[in-house]
Amino acid sequence: MQTVWLRKEGAEKLLLLFNGWGMDGRIGDHLLEKSLSEKFTMDLLLCYDYRNLELDTIVMEEIAHYNHITLVAWSFGVWAAQQTTLPPIAEAIAINGTISPIEAEKGIRPDVFMATLSTWSEENRQRFNRRMCGTSEALELFTSMMPNRSVEDQQEELARLQKHVLVTGSTTAAWSYNHAIIGGRDLIFPAQQQSSAWKGIPQTLISDMPHFPFLHFKNLQEVLACLSR
180-223: per-residue pLDDT in tens? Predict the structure, then answer.
């Protein structure tokens, strides 16, 4: 797993942000910029690239010093966060993902997942990005923060994730998600499957939100505000 400290100022609270599959730090850079302009005060650590699910020992030691850790995870990062050894989590928000990511009733249909994995190419990546974003406005925003990842290493990450899921399933961590944010127009993790996966957990349904959520959520404070709903 790759990690990058986007903000490390000795704050009392830490926000752990688990990005989606195939991403890097650029979405985090965008969110931090927009959040700081609204007086964001937490330290921020971004996690991505789930070819392995372990944090470096040094990173673990650094985050263990925080007394209050909030976790926000998007897409496949929702599952990956639950498989990662972490210090105690105070609260956690899932955005457009589930802890059963390759499952017909609570995630992505296995045949759809396999089709994505087996046919991944530059052309299909562009098609996937259009489906992920849903609208030209969202696609334009995503394109401005497009990850600097090759088709080959994204495909390798997806293959590793499949193996991880087959081995571990939806192993329950010592902490649980407190809130799920669901996009009604998510074409990757369909809203109905998300709703089924989070039965009994407080949910925020945003009817016109696609899988890519950061046109609707301009900054991290808007995401965290869902905890009080």
Answer: 999 999 999 999 999 999 999 999 999 999 999 999 999 999 99
Residue with tokens 């993902």: 97
- Listed by start position, the domains of the chain span 2-228
Q: How large is the angle between the packed helices 151-168 and 110-118, nearest 10 degrees?
A: 150
66 token code pair: 């925080």
**pLDDT tens for residues 116-165?**
999 999 999 999 999 999 999 999 999 999 999 999 999 999 999 999 99
Start-to-end CA distance of the chain, whole Å, equals: 32
Please, are residues 139 and 129 in contact by the beta-carbon 8 Å criterion? yes
How far lies 217's CA from each of 6, 35, 181, 212, in Å? 18, 10, 11, 10
pTM for the full model? Answer: 0.96
What whole-number distance in Å separates Cα of residue 40 and Cα of residue 73? 18
For residue 188, give the 3-state DSSP assignment: coil
User: What superfamily would CATH give domain 2-228?
Assistant: Alpha/Beta hydrolase fold, catalytic domain (3.40.50.1820)
CA distance 180 to 75: 11
Interatomic CA distance for residues 88 and 136, integer angstroms: 40
Q: Residue written as tokens 């991403």?
A: 23
DSSP 90-141: SEEEEES--SS-B-TTTSB-HHHHHHHHHT--HHHHHHHHHHHH-SHHHHHH
Structure tokens that stand for 22 in this block = 């195939």
